[in-house]
Amino acid sequence: MKKDFPLGFFLIAAIATWAVYTWSTDETRITHPNHKASTAYQACVLAADHVFETSLKEANTDPSVWIGYKSAWDYAKTAKSIALGLC
Q: Cα(first)–Cα(last) distance of the chain, in Å?
């Protein structure tokens, strides 16, 4: 009696092959050697840098702004991290 491979085996093999191919060629994946960040994310990072610079200038001008933080630099870093969190 001849034994055939079940159809499920071929289906699973096809899906696994597709998943590996998709994963390995996805240049938006951050661990990909040719990673290309999206332009929206790059714009968001630039906006966060602007928030940092503005916050640092504001904190250096008015020390009462960064009360509760270690320094004006810490206040600006926190503002930038909040902005990056919104990306």
A: 61
Phi and psi torsions of 71, nearest 5°: -160, 175
pLDDT digits over 2-45, tens only?
667 687 888 898 899 988 888 787 777 777 777 666 777 788 88
- Report helix, strand or coil for 34: coil
Burial of 52 by CB count in 10 Å (0-12 exposed, 13-18 middle, 19+ buried)?
Answer: buried
- Cα dihedral sign for 36, 41, 43, 47? negative
The residue among 39, 38, 44 whose CA lies nearest residue 86 is 44
